[in-house]
Amino acid sequence: MSQTFRPTRRGVLLSGAAFSLTGLLPLRAAAADPIKVAGIYTVPVEQQWVSRIHIAAEAAKAAGRIDYTYSENVANTDYPRVMREYCESGVKLIVGEIFGAEAEAREVCAEYPDVAFLLGSSFLPDEAANPNLAVFDNFIQDASYLSGIIAGAMTKSGNIGMVGGFPIPEVNRLMNAFMAGVRETRADATFQVSFIGSWFDPPKAKETALGMIDGGADVMYAERFGVSDAAKERGILAIGNVIDTQADYPETVVASALWHFEPTLNAALDAIEGGNFVAADYGVYSFMKADGCSLAPLGTFEGKVPADVMAMVAAKEAAIRDGSFVVEINDNEPKSS
Fold first, then answer.
1. For residue 206, which of 56, 112, 226, 292 is within the disulfide window of CB 3.0 to 4.6 Å?
2. How many domains does the chain have?
3. pTM of model > 0.90
4. The pLDDT value given to residue 32
C-alpha cells in the first residue's frame, strides 16, 4: 500500500475549508443520541500520550455526547482483530493509534466504510483508499518550544539531558522544538539525547536519565515516564511532556508542554453529527492557535523563573497564536551535541 509521510513543514489552515469534502461518509448521529465510540490503545491509559485521548473521551462521555468504551495494552499484532470486533459491535467511531500497524489497520478501515476512524498515524490520510480514516498526531511543538525557553534559563551548566521513546516524527518534532527554545535563552547549550526503544518502561527511562545526570546534565527533558524520578532523586530540574506531573514532583518539574485532545475529538464528533466525516489530517487541532496545546502553569516554580524570561514566553505565545511566529516542525532525529 502506498503511504506518504507528513512533510516536516506544513502550511495547513485551521479551517474546515482545508479539508476536502469528497468521499463523505454516510454517518449522521441524532443530536440526542450519544455516538458509540471505542478507544483502542497499545499501552495503558495512564501513559502520557494515550491518557490525553482517554481524558478527552471520558469528558465527552460525562457530557452525554458519546457512549465510550476502550481496550488498553493491545499488541500491534492484535490491533486489527480488536478493530473488527468493535466494528461488528456497532460503534460509529474508533480512536487510537496505529503507528505499529499502519497497513493492517488501514485494511480494516476499508472493510467497514460506515465506521469513522480517528487514529494516530505517521502518515497522511488516503482519501481514495480510506475515505473514512482521519489521522492525527500530537503536534504540540508550540508548547514544547516555550518549555525550552524556560529550560534554557534554568540550567546552570548548559548541559541538558533528553530521554525519548523512539526517534519517530511524533517524538522528534517535540524534542527539536524544545531544543530550539532552549537556544533562545542559552545559545551555548549542549544536549545528551537518547531513546529507550519503548513507549512505557519507566525503569529504563530512569536508568538512562541517571546516566545523563552523571554526565553533567542539570535539567532533564522528560519525554517518558521515569525521567522525572531520576531528576528528583538527584536534586535537579525536569521539563514535562504532554501531561502536567508537577503535583507529583513539586520541586522538580519546572514546566510542561501539555497536549489537549479535546479540540481534535470534538471536531471529529461534529463531523459525524453533521454527516460529513472525511479523510483528513486532524493534526492541526493540536496547534496552540487551536487550543490543542499549552504551557502548564508554573505552580511551585512561580517567581523562580526570571521575570524577563516569562515575558519572553508570553510574547512568543502571543506571536504563535496570532500567526506572526511559527515554530518549525522538524521531524528529523535529534542528536547529542
1. 226
2. 2
3. no
4. 63
